Amino acid sequence: MLVGLLVSSLLRPLPEYLVAATDLKPGQILKAEDFTSVPLDLGELGAYVKSQDAGSVVGVQRVVRKGELISKKDLTTIAYPEYTAIRITPELKPASVAAGSFVSVWRAIERESGTELELIVPRAEVFEIKYGEGLFAQENPEVELRLKLEEAIAVMHAISLENQIFVVPVI
Question: Are 89 and 145 within 8 A, CB to CB?
């Protein structure tokens, strides 16, 4: 009898859980091809999304890296129209910045009395860091940020004035 129970439990299919097929960014409208299903035995862990539970998902609330299990608290059924993403190339290579981390955005303004630093965005989520390719690629990477529309406009305005732009890690 014990052998029969063991064999029947081994023959039962494992539940399938959602895994990110690509890097997922907040504000991105998700499609079926953004996920894969993986059969896993997670026991009583109820924090992860099973494949059959993904019907009403619109997006994620944080950056989810490719290959990462999708947690229930990562998902949202709300789109974020008040946010956008822009890609900037800061003057200096940002220290310890990665996708999913947060930065503040500063600009340097040249005045008669010297250079003045001004905070443009106090806290923005980093979506992606992209380094150029090849021998003459820029040392400073492009940094893609999630910003409110007003913040994005302020950053673009500073760039149009040819201000130097800096990103500084924040907690």
Answer: no
pTM of the model: 0.60
Question: Domain limits of the chain?
Answer: 13-76, 83-170
Q: What is the CATH number of domain 13-76?
A: 3.90.1210.10
- The position carrying tokens 């980093």 is 126
Is residue 66 within 8 Å of residue 23, measured between CB atoms?
yes
Q: Express each pLDDT in 52-100 by its tens digit.
A: 676 666 778 778 889 988 888 887 766 666 778 889 988 887 778 888 8
DSSP-H helix ranges across 64-138: none
Query: What are φ and ψ of residue 55, in 5° steps?
Result: -55, -45
What pairs with residue 118 in β-bridges?
107
